[in-house]
Amino acid sequence: MVCFRLSPVPGAGLVLFCLVLGAIRSYALELNLTNSENATCLYAKWQMKFTIHYETTNKTYKTVTISDLGTVTYNGSICGDDQNGPKIEVQFGSGFSWTVNFTKEVSNYSIASISFSYNTRDNTIFPDAQDKGILTVNNPVAIRIPLNEIFRCNSISTLEDNDVVQKYWDVLVQAFVQNGTVSTKEFLCDKDKTSTTVAPIIHTVVPSPTTTPTPKEKPKVGTYSISNGNGTCLLASMGLQLNVTQDKVASVININPNSTDFTGSCHPQTALLRLNSSIIKYLDFVFAVKNENRFYLKEVNVSMYLVNGSVFSIANNNLSYWDAPLGSSYMCNKEQTVSVSGTFQINTFDLRVQPFNVMEGKYSTAEECSADTDLNFLIPVAVGVALGFLIVVVFISYMIGRRKSRTGYQSV
Ligand SMILES: *[C@@H]1O[C@H](CO)[C@@H](O)[C@H](O)[C@H]1NC(C)=O
Ligand SMILES: *[C@@H]1O[C@H](CO)[C@@H](O)[C@H](O)[C@H]1NC(C)=O
Ligand SMILES: *[C@@H]1O[C@H](CO)[C@@H](O)[C@H](O)[C@H]1NC(C)=O
Ligand SMILES: *[C@@H]1O[C@H](CO)[C@@H](O)[C@H](O)[C@H]1NC(C)=O
Ligand SMILES: *[C@@H]1O[C@H](CO)[C@@H](O)[C@H](O)[C@H]1NC(C)=O
Ligand SMILES: *[C@@H]1O[C@H](CO)[C@@H](O)[C@H](O)[C@H]1NC(C)=O
Ligand SMILES: *[C@@H]1O[C@H](CO)[C@@H](O)[C@H](O)[C@H]1NC(C)=O
Ligand SMILES: *[C@@H]1O[C@H](CO)[C@@H](O)[C@H](O)[C@H]1NC(C)=O
Ligand SMILES: *[C@@H]1O[C@H](CO)[C@@H](O)[C@H](O)[C@H]1NC(C)=O
Ligand SMILES: *[C@@H]1O[C@H](CO)[C@@H](O)[C@H](O)[C@H]1NC(C)=O
Ligand SMILES: *[C@@H]1O[C@H](CO)[C@@H](O)[C@H](O)[C@H]1NC(C)=O
């Protein structure tokens, strides 16, 4: 889930809204574990979703998102005893299991680790997975909570592995419950402490008028290629960063290529690259040919999900970016901005595209953006200036020399 914090609206205080990753529908899991005396020993309520990335037999990657957990069982969840700490064990779907274990110290208890297992033998969820079997990711968490306090975290927490992204929100948990009474004293997670309201801020930079936004890390470079009957017809590789402005506050989102799908099409005069992910319904790059000898990025059409069930959409078919001769590719390693509208812009990094005339699946020679060539361009300029200066110096010396010798002749 990606959330945006909006600037204060008159009379409404801070308004927050979120971009939901995938299904907006979600429901809470709840576990009230009791001991042999039927007194509550562990209480938990939370929501979670998983995004799994796996390799298929034809060497491509697929992404599945598990947000509707279906029927859930809690077999194996225990209050804990002298040997073992308390444990939450959840089973759902076909072969998913999720485990949290807790430990206790003198005056604190800890959520020690969270592990998640999935079975890629399930062909309906993981069709043509390369590696079949049960895979487990285990993440140490080490969240320390004072005894007899209940941990609350409404913000989204993310645990990220290479292949699995786990997200949790609306978390309420207390282990080692004393005397069977769940505490009313809440221990808030750091993210909830900083946001005045419940909504979380993740993956976004939240600039405010008084603070400068923290610099965002560079997005990972994704490689995209589209094929038609004649083989690869469009190539693109780029790191993409989306900048959405809502109520004068900009939110910056990096596109993770691992969890982004792409499609597209190629025609003689236009070519399309369409990306989508759990938060991006679609992001279209439409290329066109102009004057029969150059191509350019003509149109961007985007639609993103918002938490309140609505969708943010912007299109502009009158752009002119990434302009290069047909039969070549366009390259720009420096950060460049595609300004789609006043409220939506795309920052690109390490960009290379060729939407037409791709030969043998490879990029043709690149035409570089001016930002990249500035330095290379400065070197000849500097050399030229130095040479010019030298010529002037030589010329002046020559004139002085000539005058001296003339004076010499006259004096003779
Ligand atoms: C948990 O279950 C116990 C026993 O059934 C009940 O007394 C208690 O109110 C429940 N607690 C919550 C928070 O649901
Ligand atoms: C969980 O327990 C229920 C009944 O308590 C049982 O029917 C089910 O088979 C168990 N599931 C697993 C995965 O052990
Ligand atoms: C918690 O779970 C992990 C993985 O399941 C395990 O390695 C670790 O020993 C467990 N810790 C405790 C205290 O049970
Ligand atoms: C994406 O996948 C590649 C290969 O599986 C992996 O090396 C890389 O760390 C992943 N990146 C992210 C951001 O998950
Ligand atoms: C639990 O009960 C014991 C004895 O009845 C009492 O001393 C203790 O303070 C209680 N703890 C809490 C957290 O209510
Ligand atoms: C494949 O190339 C041929 C010759 O260049 C062209 O006539 C045909 O339309 C192309 N097919 C597709 C699907 O682009
Ligand atoms: C995002 O857009 C806003 C408004 O156009 C701009 O002020 C800000 O510098 C942009 N941030 C990034 C990281 O591009
Ligand atoms: C992209 O869209 C396709 C078709 O609409 C969908 O099957 C796929 O799950 C989407 N990909 C992601 C990463 O959400
Ligand atoms: C943007 O894409 C949507 C969905 O594909 C389409 O309905 C709409 O006409 C497009 N807008 C433009 C300006 O192309
Ligand atoms: C969702 O939030 C956006 C931004 O605040 C707003 O423009 C839109 O009208 C809202 N949609 C619904 C259905 O509430
Ligand atoms: C497209 O952009 C050009 C210059 O950027 C402008 O002159 C023209 O009016 C625009 N056309 C439309 C339909 O917006």
Assign a percent range to the helix content: 10-25%
Number of strands: 27
Any ligands, ions or cofactors bound here, and which? 2-acetamido-2-deoxy-beta-D-glucopyranose
H/E element order:
EEEEEEEEEEEEEEHEEEEEEEEEEEEEH
Taking pLDDT < 50 over at least 5 consecutive residues as the criterion, the unreliable ranges are 1-25, 196-214
**What's the overall geometry?**
elongated
Looking at the overall shape, the CATH architecture of the largest domain is Beta Barrel
Distance N terminus to C terminus? 95 Å
Structural class: mainly beta
C-alpha Rg, in Å? 30 Å
Main sheet makeup? 7 strands, mixed
Number of domains: 2
Average pLDDT taken over every residue: 82
CATH top level of the largest domain? Mainly Beta
Determine the CATH topology of the largest domain. Answer: Porin
Characteristic terms for this protein:
about 400 residues; mainly beta; Porin; 2 domains; 7-stranded mixed sheet; 27 strands; elongated; disordered N terminus; binds 2-acetamido-2-deoxy-beta-D-glucopyranose
Account of the protein in words:
The chain is 11% helix and 49% strand. The termini are far apart. It has two domains: 2-192, Porin (Beta Barrel); 221-366, Beta Barrel (Porin), CATH 2.40.160.110. The model is unreliable at 1-25 and 196-214 (pLDDT under 50). With 412 residues, the chain is mainly β. It has helices spanning 190-194, 370-411, and strands spanning 2-5, 16-19, 29-34, 40-55, 61-66, 72-73, 87-92, 96-104, 108-119, 134-146, 150-153, 157-160, 164-174, 186-188, 221-228, 231-246, 249-254, 261-266, 270-276, 280-290, 294-305, 311-316, 321-325, 329-332, 336-341, 344-354, 366-368. The chain is elongated and about 115 Å long. It contains two helices and 27 strands. Bound molecules: 2-acetamido-2-deoxy-beta-D-glucopyranose (11 copies). One 2-acetamido-2-deoxy-beta-D-glucopyranose (NAG) is lined by residues 228-230.
